[in-house]
Amino acid sequence: MIQILKKSAPALSLRAGRIARQLIEKDGLNAAQIDMIPGAAGGPKGIGLMGLDQAIFGDFLPRAKQRRFLIGSSVGAWRFAGILAQGEIAGPEQLAELYIHLPFHKKMRIAEIEKISRDMLHGIIGQQTEKLVQHPDYHLTIIAAKASHLFQSDQRLALYGSLAGIVGANAISRDHLSKFMQRVICQPSQFPQFKMPDDAFKTHYLNFNAHNVADWLMASGSIPGVTPAVKNIQDAPLGAYRDGGLIDYHLDLAFESQGIVLYPHFSDSIIPGWFDKMFKSRQANPVNQARTLLISPSQSYLDSLPLGRLPDRKDFVLKGLDPEQRIKMWKQSVAESQRLGDEFLALIESQNFADVLQDL
């Protein structure tokens, strides 16, 4: 009797903007086309992409050496910082190891969370801050938010009053967030700079150096009410700086790419800002994403994971999930991510994109 082997479901979902799809259909996908790589905010979901990051940065992109923009918000910036500081394989592994074993519990005070977050960041970049400034292949671009008015304060009444106002204003229009915060794009000074067309948000273009890049990374991931705003950053304008995901959660930016924007993401959709999560209509602008190739875990892959999804910040305090169980499940999710990287590299070899590519 002949046994018929069932073809396994794909681990990856690939969605392409209009121009990206045309380029891939015409020339296939090769490393020389890639000039920008975004990294979304999203906490520990980022470590669920470890294997994909290692395949992209450790194997695919080195096939065509050139300087590329890495544009990250919150954990997206931390992922990229680890790759630049520790290397394409060790960086993602170090980030995952530190995040998995983060000693967080729900009764922690803000000062304690800030301390363990700083320690985690030091574990990611160590003494390698100069690599983030001078890296020959990658131009790290960190996105943060500069708080305005009462939103600068970490005192409970002022902070939560501001957040209530932000939620209400955002419900009317995302553009109203500009009354509470401004975008900061921070990058090394000695290379061509990442720029974007003006939008509703005032955007500050600043430069980081080896002395203040850790503070900028910390600011980019400073969630209001969880960790305090980062203030008095060396060589920066006075102000309170917060999580870049507040404005640019999944980075729906007008990327001025000349090729393809390769976007390894934990979701198959792009939500503009953190406060837009509750609005299904708040989706990415197709014009902004025309050159984007979005690569994310497929639903069948997510269903196969221990929690039926990627690691999430809520797992630290999820009822019925003790720390030992969380660590075990997160480790398994990270280990499974090698399938994402393997499938991506197999696609690069076969160039069989016609069967898998969907519209973004």
Automatic annotation (TrEMBL):
SUPFAM superfamilies (alphabetical): FabD/lysophospholipase-like (SSF52151)
Identification of the protein by name: Patatin-like phospholipase family protein
Organism: Acinetobacter cumulans
